[in-house]
Specification:
The protein is α/β, with parallel strands linked by helices. It is built from 10 helices and 8 strands. The protein has a single domain, classed as Vaccinia Virus protein VP39 (Rossmann fold, 3-Layer(aba) Sandwich), CATH 3.40.50. The longest helix is centred in the last third of the chain and has 18 residues, at 165-182. The protein is globular, with a radius of gyration of 18 Å. The relative contact order is 0.14.
Length: 256
Amino acid sequence: MDEQHEIIQTFSEMAPRYEKLMNNELNKFFGFDYGEFVSWLIDEIEMEPGETILDIATGTGFIPAYIQKNEKTYKKIIGLDITFEMLINSERNLGSSEKFEEVNLVCASAHAIPLKTREIDHVICCLATHHMDVDLLLKNIKHCLKEDGTIHLADAGGSLKWKNTIIKTVIKLLASIYFLIFENLSRARAESSAVANIHTTDEWRQLLTENGYNRIEIVELKSRRFWAPVLLIIKAKNNNKWRKNDNSCRVNSRRQ
């Protein structure tokens, strides 16, 4: 089965229970729930009135709903997700009130974002990049992001040991077993395949720099399980005046 179709199948099945699932997994590995994590991520974004925000892999619209409920100034928000079933389930978060009329949901791949050039002020992607080709993702984001726009990413991060073929094989096997026990075969396949897309902090810095982003800040959250990946929270700025010698990057580490 094509990897993209497998991801759609997996997340279609997860859609009715997505937030509950994320709560359980984040609590188990890091000690906080999905809502707490989203609030921390979103509250770091310096939003101005009239700006446009793109939430990639928006799922059931939890992040657009959080922004609309907690920000005093109105923002235009676009929620993009490849899984139509996830977007259908967004009503439980977005509702049908007038407040959410300008939250535009788009069913499309992050590898081919169907937006105009330099249309977006801020891009968010939470807990999803490990299911994507990150280099292609960053190129697509740059196409629609305004000059001096910002990206805010959060996802699993690996270590240099993961580059060892034997260790990577073991991690893929452990991921398969874990999700097969606690979830199902579809999720086990998707998460096992995603191990190849989990990057180290240094790899993220290199990928961002090569794609023309600077002012990179990365926070590392250590898992409660020694064998599990860390959680990376990444902020970077798009600047078309970027030069190769501007490789400023700040990395912080936090242990839960």
